[in-house]
Design brief:
This protein is mostly helical and 259 residues long. The protein has helices spanning 24-46, 55-72, 81-100, 105-125, 131-138, 142-152, 160-166, 175-180, 186-204, 208-219, 224-231, 235-257.
Length: 259
Amino acid sequence: MPKTPNKIRDYTNAYFSRPEPLDPARRDELILTYTPLIKYIANRLASRLPPQVAVDDLISCGIVGLIDAINKFEPAKNVQFKTYAEFRIKGAMLDELRALDWVPRSIRRKISELERICGELEAKLGRPASDEETAAGLGISLEELHRLLDETKSVTFLDIDYLRQKAPDEVEGDVTEIFAGDDRDPVAALNLGETRELLARAINELPEKEKLTVALYYNEELTMREIGEVLGYTESRISQMHSKAMLRLRGKLKKQLEA
């Protein structure tokens, strides 16, 4: 999978330096500039999804998200357009996936059960449960647990919209601006800081190999295969570690946000 396009620089903010709206030619130029980023995000997202989800559909949604970003971008808010556009592009793709409702109910039930067992075992043991302990808690074999993790890997990633829905009413503005901006609103900064702290604490509590997998996948943007080469595991095993990490994080965030 290609790395994040490097040629898209923040100079694109200059497109918005004029008070009047972008003319069609400059809009088209901006869309062409960001097409590699849209394709990169679509392919990276599709790598975690079943084959019936078409990459071309995600790309089309990403273009819609980019156009939305162009229409709503406000340079005065001290947000780099590249950062703002990436949030909008990803958001449009995730909205499309939710609208498709491609995840069978049986898979959703299994994810909920996995989250519940992981949470209960961690509360009881005072640490994250091992695979053997998780399998015993579910009443299945270790091999069956690994198959279950493989089966649920397509949907075990953090749902940013969950955080959006739980955002305090006092925080004005779009959640994208809050996450992409420099948080001059002290109320927004406080709540964003709490969210970051919560997520950072939850990640820090992960088992070491899962923590490394999360860091290499989301920060370094390595593929599962590349992470496997770094850590000395198969791509399948790394995918299972990622699934377990996301299950733990989802459960922790839901518990805290619903408190």
